[in-house]
Specification:
The chain has 670 residues and is an alpha+beta fold. Helix 1 runs antiparallel to helix 2 and helix 16 crosses helix 17.
């Protein structure tokens, strides 16, 4: 049994380590060297080994603990994590300021300007001063629970010491510093591993790793920008930042309070000049009304608050040589040209490839192999060729010729009259096969972890996979698969376990995974909800599919054609027998049910200013309502935006109540 003196000693060492972590990772002002820190840590480990009953979850030794996570649980946010509207020039900032002034009237207001980090938004929950839960932003309403991985970030305290506030939520951004990202890639290169594209994607991928020990080996950082608590009355956003500092949760000090929109613009200009010299990647400035009371008065529209906006910096650009044009074949057979570039460093990563979109784009910009081209990162993420430097063009440079045959299988390429893409029509084309498999097992579809492109290729070449239904009979070849090079019992069993788990995916994910042309995630959800099952959807005519809200003639034709094909019918039959969900399961009522929407039928017409059509539909359906594509006597409301057409006229004729966007927003608020 540990004595009081041992208990006090362990507590004292933990506090010293926590303080050292804060000074090192947050203040960048360490007061002890690494050797003394390591001695303290070892002493704590030795004492906890002798007195295991004194080990607590918030001990520094427990930042990396437990067995690897098998799946990430989905958690619902206490308050939605809203996204921000974007502005790209000062005129749009002026428009934002005018909207604020129109709503607040004669009230005085001021703005807080903060850096917009190129990282991953997360929510941290503290209960009784201890970090108890952490989640990703997800869709804004629900996210993945990643507590074990967040605990590995040493700048985030596992326990706070301020007795005046014990229960609160913190929101902020997880990111990787520029020099740390370069170090990670150097290490990857040395061991022959994958080179990461950019710091943001690396941070996002790291947070979703299932082994927290691997996460702990990556230098993740964190800045908080928001705190909510019922234990302290906060009047401004800045008072929240000051509270975060007080309880030793890291915040970025490059923020300012601006008395006018002109001061906001000045801050944006100053930060953009400093951008390249900062130790972390940013892509803009976040502008918020400082007063929390005024924030509440201003409210939100759809998924964005009215009281905040992101000012996005201009995309970074540079010049490099286009060595050649590579042709890639996707899962649908579409042939896409890609620029093979002389490697150049741009916005945090080395760029060697850039999209050329399609052959019409190459012709329009007159892009030729050997040209010097200007490239930029669209949204600071996707590199693209924006311009050819004609004064540097070589005299013998030849215009690019559109190929007649598939670069992978040699089949003749075809171009539909109404499209810009050329297609390989050979369904058995190896590139299409890999694309279909990769799409099917991807996170947005069946999410079968472990079946990456190289492993799929190995299984295909070994004869185990001819179509995606074969994935579900891999278990019959377990012993043979373990004999393949680079595979063992554990790796094969993990893959088989992930395959079995994918059978729980809902109908819309399965439908999206089939890779039907023109059927993205949103369309798959609409079809799954409207028809409820494969049997119902496959029995529908092309006209019936087209009559579904949001489904146009191209989509309807593509879906009907795919489901009428005998080979596809056979594939789907095998997937049904394998146990995949080909009908929608009833779900419990959403907690967001809204009495204004519940049981009501809406028709949407015209263009809405503050909502995308699918966002308005989601709000209605999540509130218990229904959205129809046509007006009838059973319609309760017609939501009419600008340029509303015949549906509005029919509503007036039938005496159906017509509402505008303001009334719709009031219904949401209720």
């Amino acid at each position: 049994m540990a004595s009081d003196s041992i208990t006090k000693k362990i507590t004292s060492i933990r506090e010293k380590i926590a303080d050292a972590d804060y000074r090192y990772y947050v203040l960048a002002d360490p007061d002890i060297d690494d050797y003394k820190y390591d001695l303290l840590f070892k002493e704590l480990e030795d004492l906890e080994r002798q007195y295991p009953e004194l080990i607590t979850e918030d001990s520094p030794t427990q930042r990396v603990s437990g067995v690897p996570t098998k799946t990430f649980k989905t958690v619902e946010h206490r308050m939605p994590m809203l996204s921000l509207s974007n502005s790209y020039n000062f005129e749009e900032l002026n428009d934002f300021d005018i909207r604020i002034r129109n709503i607040l009237g004669n009230e005085k207001y001021e703005y807080v300007c903060e850096l917009k980090f190129d990282g991953i938004a997360v929510s941290l929950i503290y209960s009784d001063s201890r970090l108890v839960s952490a989640a990703t932003r997800g869709d804004g309403f629900k996210g993945d629970e990643i507590t074990q991985n967040i605990r590995t970030i040493k700048s985030i305290p596992l326990v706070t010491k301020d007795s005046s506030i014990k229960n609160f939520e913190v929101r902020g951004e997880v990111f990787i510093r520029k020099e740390d990202f370069l170090m990670i890639n150097e290490q990857q290169e040395q061991k022959g591993g994958k080179i990461f594209a950019n710091a943001r994607n690396t941070a996002a991928g790291t947070l979703k790793l299932k082994d927290s020990k691997t996460v702990a080996s990556r230098p993740l950082n964190f800045f908080a920008y928001y705190i909510f608590t019922e234990e302290k009355k906060l009047s401004t956003h800045v008072s929240g930042i000051e509270l975060l500092k007080k309880i030793k949760i890291p915040v970025n000090n490059l923020y300012t309070v601006a008395k006018s929109i002109d001061e906001v613009k000045q801050f944006c200009d100053n930060i953009e000049l400093q951008r390249d010299g900062l130790p972390y990647e940013i892509d803009g400035v976040v502008v918020k009304v400082n007063s929390l009371a005024q924030q509440e008065l201003l409210g939100s529209v759809s998924r964005s608050p009215r009281w905040a906006i992101a000012y996005k910096f201009k995309a970074k650009e540079t010049v490099t040589k286009l060595k050649g044009i590579i042709l890639q074949v996707g899962r649908t057979g579409a042939v896409t040209p890609v620029a093979d570039l002389q490697p150049v460093f741009l916005a945090g990563s080395t760029i060697s490839r850039a999209t050329l979109h399609n052959f019409d784009e190459i012709k329009r910009k007159d892009i030729r192999e050997g040209d010097y081209v200007k490239i930029e990162k669209g949204g600071d993420v996707i590199p693209k060729v924006t311009e050819v430097l004609l004064d540097k063009r070589q005299k013998d440079a030849k215009p690019f010729s559109i190929p007649k045959n598939c670069p992978v299988c040699g089949s003749e390429l075809m171009k539909p009259d109404e499209e810009v893409y050329y297609y390989c029509m050979n369904y058995e084309c190896p590139a299409q096969m890999i694309g279909r498999f990769t799409h099917f097992v991807g996170r947005d579809a069946m999410e079968i972890e472990g079946l990456g492109e190289s492993i799929l290729e190995t299984f295909i070449l070994s004869g185990y996979l001819k179509d995606v239904a074969d994935i579900y009979i891999l278990k019959d070849h377990r012993e043979e698969l373990m004999q393949l090079e680079r595979f063992g019992e554990k790796s094969i069993d993990n893959i088989l376990l992930a395959i079995e788990g994918s059978k729980q995916k809902p109908f819309d994910k399965v439908l999206f995974g089939l890779g039907i042309r023109h059927v993205g995630e949103r369309v798959a959800k609409v079809l799954a909800k409207s028809f409820n099952s494969y049997a119902s959807l496959s029995a529908a005519s092309e006209e019936e599919i087209r009559a579904t809200n949001e489904i146009g003639p191209k989509i309807a034709e593509s879906v009907h054609s795919y489901l009428s094909n005998e080979k596809n019918k056979f594939l789907i039959d095998r997937l049904i027998k394998a146990g995949l969900n080909f009908e929608s399961r009833p779900t419990e009522s959403r907690s967001t049910a809204n009495s204004s929407f519940s049981g009501k039928t809406f028709v949407l017409t015209g263009t809405l200013n503050n909502y995308k059509r699918e966002e308005a539909q989601d709000l209605i359906e999540n509130g218990g309502g229904k959205v129809s594509s046509s007006v009838s006597k059973k319609t309760d409301y017609v939501l009419a935006g600008a340029d509303a057409g015949s549906k509005l006229e029919k509503a007036k004729t039938l005496g159906v109540k017509v509402i505008d966007e303001d009334e719709f927003h009031k219904m949401i608020s209720q």
